[in-house]
Give the backbone structure.
Amino acid sequence: MSASNATIYLKAEQNVELQSDDVYLKDIGKMTCSDEAILAKVKTIKLHRFKEGESKRQVISVLKIIEEIEKLYPNVTVENLGESDVLIERINVNRHKGPIQFAKIVFVSAISFFGTAFTIMAFHNDIGINGVFSRIYEMVTGQVADGYSILEFSYSIGLAAGIIIFFNHIGGRRITKDPTPIEVEMRVYERDVNKALIETADREGKTIDVQ
């Protein structure tokens, strides 16, 4: 097949993380073409190079990507099936290593554990759950509860089981193959952040785009 009637199908990602300074077309998403020679050549197109002192986040428009492809193959048709803009982040994997990262993990874990425990205790104190249990125990047995009863123990076990089932985790293992609520919220948050960064770059005129 000649380049004049070849079609390149491009599925650009919304966010791409790279460890190298050079950004090639093959890094921003998936591509396919019936002409393997054209596809191999197109994948090597350099789109950007991160310079010293430059922002580690850059937004590249798909129009710019198409323009670069057409410079190499003017008669090739490009079909984009993905995002219209790609957020590229230059990351340094070494910054995630060492005792500082471990300290951050311990700190966040402690805040999450004790913060959640305090919230649960404060909520139970606000609604007077001990009085509710005492009243239920008295209504069912006809006797005044003397200290903690089976209701408190059952509620504590049920609360722990409910949290485990809701978050779909026991230690490092999943209960089911479904994504956990935290994973779902993190994906939503990530999409919102990427969208905001892309829109901000576009408004400030910092998007790498066609002239």
About this structure: DSSP finds six helices and ten strands in the chain. The mean pLDDT is 86. The domain at 3-94 is CATH 2.60.480.10 (eubacterium ventriosum atcc fold).
